[in-house]
Amino acid sequence: MEFMKDTERAMKALYVTAVVTYSGKTALALGIGLKLQEMGRKVGYMKPISTQPFLINGKLVDEDAEFVGRTLGLETPIEALAPIILDDAKIDSVLSGAPAEDYLAAVKAAYAKVSEGRDVVLLEGGASMREGYIIGLNAMNVAKTLDVLTLGVVRYRSTLMLVDDALALKARMGEHLLGMVINSVPEEQLEAVRGKVSHFLESKGVRVYGVLPNDPRLMSISVAELINVLDAKKLTPEVSDEGLIETLSVGAMSVESATQHFRRLQRKAVITGGDRADIQAAALETSTTALVLTGNLQPSATILKHAESRGVAVLLVPYNTLETIERVEKVFGKTRLAHPEKLARFRESLDVNLNWARLFADLGI
Known about the structure:
Udp-n-acetylmuramoylalanyl-d-glutamate--2,6- Diaminopimelate Ligase, Chain: A, domain 1; six-stranded parallel β-sheet; 15 helices
């Protein structure tokens, strides 16, 4: 497979895309970047289109691009790392029929900038294959315009959906598809996916570079992230913000039922009212990382003292239980690697489960 038409430069590029949301695309792009840096390669990075920007120093920037750029130690301006921010104003402009901007030209200019002096440039796609059509920056158009190969990330949902997702990826990306990585495979399905499923996909012309097992720890969020998303006040100052939360539980049941339920969940956050001392006490006797108390209802001093002795963060939030759950669910399930333990764990998983030699050989690295 020919990598680039421009044979005069040795720089390689790889476009990491996902079929559906929360597939681990950013994590994989970062993991590949760190591996290449470990090998002594000069790495560049860009996320052509962002639909989930946030404010940093008064500027709308892409959260993933900012994190990857910072972790890779890149000095490239954030505006080049994520050149197209698709915010509400831009969407309204498009829908209103305003003169169209040349978004592809902007992406090409940013790509030229992030490629300067680099051996390899990693590009990150949108949240899913459907993203970007409104302004002509869907994955296929980006791959064609920049003449780059694509590595797809497919999250396991079922065997049928996995195979269909992989074949749909091939149908969309065509000659620009290098291959794929299968992510979040349950332990009981690993043998089948690594065996007959991968063999079937290879027979259909889809290279499978790795099969990554499901790891709840990688989907966890830290206490600090939970505080941020809930506008929470931490009532246990001596407890670290770095604790990881793998599961959520809502304490809206009898204490007997809650106790049995809590014992089955590890590293959890329990969402309950500040007036439910019985539920709070039951949670503190099991593997709990955080107590989230809704409605701005203060817990008792006894509960706070017990929580601090157990290393459990107690967070007070202004929202009711339903609002709190909705806010937490927006961030749960995404592979966020800002926590050092999670980043190290994911890199170990890649070294065990990804065929680096085959991937880099096919890229010509």
